[in-house]
Task: structure prediction
Amino acid sequence: MEPITLKKETAKKVGMNELDRYRAEAQFMGGNPINSETIDGQLIIFEDHFSFVWLRERKHVIFERPSPERTIRLLRDIISKEDEQENVKNYLDRCYNIDEEDFVKRRHICDEVEPFRRIKLVRELKD
Result:
């Protein structure tokens, strides 16, 4: 799609003459998530923001792009929980998927507390 050309006074304020835009689809729920539908619109990208315009509904939403550091901070707890679940699954697999001979040789494998390693939660981090 053609970029959006800004008026001179707007271009001076934002420091650019044009905004890139692309054809896109997004869900418009209109207050009812059960009857949401995908509607054509435009994705507009500028600096650290992006926006979506639903032309038919005459709605416009602006989003701020998070920095890489903020993204990591927001995802840390999710990654940590997934990491912990994966460690537990692997430990239980090792406990239940050994034959008798291995069990006798390594009897202690399931008796000891497994030192699970995982990514620390945000609240566990020291500033």
Remarks:
- The mean pLDDT is 77.
- DSSP finds three helices and five strands in the chain.
- Strands lie at 4-5, 18-28, 37-46, 49-54, 59-64.
